[in-house]
Design a protein that fits this description.
The complex is a heterodimer of chains A (112) and B (112). By secondary structure, chain A is mostly beta strands. Chain A has no helices and twelve strands. Helices cover 0% and strands 53% of the residues of chain A. Chain A is globular and about 35 Å long. With 112 residues, chain B is mostly beta strands. Chain B is built from no helices and eleven strands. In chain B, strands 2, 4, 5, 9, 10 and 11 form a six-stranded mixed sheet that branches. Chain B has a five-stranded antiparallel sheet with strand order 1-3-8-7-6, with no helix packed on it. In chain B, a hairpin with a 6-residue loop joins β4 and β5. The radius of gyration of chain B is 13 Å and the shape is globular. The N and C termini of chain B lie far apart (37 Å). Classes of the chains: A mainly beta (112), B mainly beta (112).
């Protein structure tokens, strides 16, 4: 069974902290994505990566960065967490263009 | 500006009834339209998808209807069951691109 695993289910951080959200996939996906999910706004793309060490900005990259040093791991970094980054964060993988997205179960981040 | 508009935001249907969720888009370059289903505590999972060369696709109780001229597509769930209670997202993407645009989601509650 295919799997995208997000290391934390819940996280609580303080304003100004540097936050790392980790995502690992075992499907040999070329492409990996970070979305945030907010009520009434659906899923919004933060960053995506189509290869190791490659990254592209999505629709809402401000305040975030990413790292992809290995094919199976894609990390989302909040350089200085703010309360408006309190959200559900979803990692996804896809094998190629227009292939279905396989999502992890999400990390619910609360910034206080 | 949301590329894909989804309605309704929430839907209550009696068991055995038909659930209908609608989506509309503006970008005529979109050529892949998936629907994702999300249960509480889980990431979204692909339910069914359609390309614009067909007007309808059916998989079991789930049907996508696609109207290219109106730039609209909808999900129909026949004989709705309590186990269908979930949040549903429509999405759209363009051939050759890895970027999916999601609707805002519909929370479906099927009452026994």
């Amino acid at each position: 069974d295919v799997k995208v695993t997000q290391s934390s289910r819940y996280l609580v951080k303080r304003t100004g902290e540097k936050v790392f959200l980790e995502c690992v996939q075992d499907m040999d996906h070329e492409n990996m994505f970070w979305y945030r999910q907010d009520p009434g706004l659906g899923l919004r793309l933060i960053y995506f990566s189509y290869d190791v060490k490659m990254k592209e900005k999505g629709d809402i990259p401000e305040g975030y960065s990413v790292s992809r040093e290995k094919k199976e791991r894609f990390s989302l970094i909040l350089e200085s967490a703010s309360t408006n980054q309190t959200s559900m964060y979803l990692c996804a993988g896809a094998s190629s263009y227009n292939s279905p997205l396989h999502f992890g179960n999400g990390t619910r981040l609360t910034v206080t | 500006q949301q590329q894909v508009k989804q309605s309704p935001q929430s839907l209550i249907v009696q068991k055995g009834g038909i659930s209908i969720i609608n989506c509309a888009y503006e970008n005529t370059a979109f050529d892949y339209f998936p629907w994702y289903q999300q249960f509480p505590g889980k990431g979204p999972a692909l339910l069914i998808a359609i390309r614009p060369d067909v007007s309808e696709k059916k998989e079991g109780r789930f049907t996508i209807s696609f109207n290219k001229s109106a730039k609209q597509f909808s999900l129909h769930i026949m004989d709705s069951q309590p186990g269908d209670s979930a949040t549903y997202f429509c999405a759209a993407s363009m051939l050759g691109f890895n970027k999916f645009y999601f609707g805002s989601g519909t929370k479906l509650n099927v009452k026994p």
